[in-house]
From TrEMBL:
Reactions accelerated catalytically: 1-(5-phospho-beta-D-ribosyl)-ATP + diphosphate = 5-phospho-alpha-D-ribose 1-diphosphate + ATP
Protein name: ATP phosphoribosyltransferase
Membrane-spanning segments: none
Gene from which this protein is expressed: HIS1
HAMAP family cross-referenced by the UniProt entry: HisG_Long
Domain ATP phosphoribosyltransferase catalytic: 58-240
Organism expressing this protein natively: Geranomyces variabilis
One example of a Gene Ontology biological process annotation: L-histidine biosynthetic process
Length: 323
């Protein structure tokens, strides 16, 4: 493959595997960013845009975007905070939702994060955890320490090094995986790890005693590149359209004109529902976007006020003002 024209292309970083990978491929497809990825190659040229997709570990993407090695990327907010770089968050993608939390064995005597100051912590997020415990050691409450993580995610590497100069009391060990085993192995008094369903935590006989941050996948770009390439804005809008389409369905039904006001309250649509007259002047047809998660309940309510011929359609793609 010839990568000689890479300089002219927008570089878009995608997690090469793991939790975010499949969802990212779905977004690329929905945004019509076509590409052919050759076996084992981590760079794929788009066949319909001046774009090169760069497949990277999710953990490297924030740094690559922040330092300008690539223009655009998708990764978790946790990874952005951990990298400690400044990036522009263009849109939240609604998947990869999880919390980064302090966990201890159920049988442990520790009941809050402050009690772990001076103890041993194992984590894959040593940057975030160092900042969090530095704040606790400096007398911050757990809430203040967690709030500081977001603000300080934009600090430079130099500032982080300077901040780390005083001898920290809490020992933080970096582990790249199987963090949940650290307490049982006698390596840690507590861990800081991601929690979604809580299954991993429960299996390891751990429980949460504090939450450092909530995270989801985000589309990020390098702040200096944001307005230099119009494709960044085009992709942001396309991706938001795909996400909205996944979140909503289109609900069509007929309702007696006298019940229209009640029906509009149930299905107000994004801006307003489309109301069309029917041959029978006493009735109207209504079409409105409805959140997929609420559709069964909405259909029940519509039936109760006398709506008929209630049809629900999947939306493949859309452009709507975000909620
Ligand atoms: N259980 C989970 N539920 C939801 N989202 C998660 C979960 N675990 C991780 N994530 C999100 O997915 C991101 C990538 O996690 P994953 O476990 O795929 O990465 P990884 O294995 O560390 O990545 P890589 O091996 O590519 O460095 C995390 O930073 C987080 O934002
Ligand atoms: O609350 P849960 O739904 O159980 O999810 C949490 C687990 O998911 C992640 O690990 P993952 O399964 O991605 O494997 P990894 O440890 O190899 O990254 C994370 O590190 C937790 O261990």
């Amino acid at each position: 493959m010839d990568f000689s024209d890479l300089d002219d292309r927008l570089l878009f970083a995608i997690p090469k595997k793991g939790r975010l990978h499949e969802n990212c491929l779905t977004l690329l497809k929905g945004a019509d960013i076509q590409f052919h990825r050759r076996n084992r190659l981590d760079i794929a040229l788009s066949t319909n845009h001046p774009v090169a997709l760069v497949f990277l570990p999710a953990s490297d993407i924030a740094t690559f975007v922040g330092e300008g090695n690539v223009d655009l990327g998708i990764t978790g907010q946790d990874m952005v905070a951990e990298a400690g770089v400044h990036v522009d968050e263009l849109t939240q993608l609604g998947f990869g939702k999880c919390n980064l939390s302090v966990q201890v064995p159920i049988s442990s005597k520790y009941t809050n994060a402050k009690e772990l100051v001076g103890k041993r912590i194992v984590t894959s997020f040593s940057g975030i955890v160092r900042r969090y415990f530095d704040s606790l050691e400096a007398g911050a409450t757990e809430e203040e320490a967690a709030a500081g993580l977001i603000k300080s995610s934009a600090t430079t590497k130099k500032e982080q090094l300077l901040a780390a100069l005083p001898e920290p009391k809490t020992t933080i060990h970096l582990a790249s995986g199987s963090v949940e085993a650290a307490c049982a192995l006698g390596l840690a008094d507590g861990i800081v790890d991601l929690v979604e369903s809580g299954e991993t935590m429960r299996e390891a006989k751990l429980h949460q005693i504090a939450t450092l941050l909530s995270s989801q996948a985000v589309l990020i770009c390098n702040p200096k590149r944001r307005h230099t390439n119009p494709l960044i804005e085009t992709f942001r809008r396309r991706i938001e359209g795909v996400i909205a389409a996944q979140k909503y369905v289109l609900c069509n039904y007929n309702i007696a004109r006298e019940s229209l006001a009640a029906a509009v309250k149930i299905t107000p649509g994004k801006k307003a529902p489309t109301v069309s007259p029917l041959e029978d002047g006493a009735w109207v047809a209504v079409s409105a976007m409805v959140q997929k998660a609420t559709i069964a309940d909405i259909m029940d309510q519509l039936e109760e006020i006398g709506a008929s011929d209630i049809l629900v359609f999947q939306i493949h793609n859309c452009r709507v003002v975000s909620a």
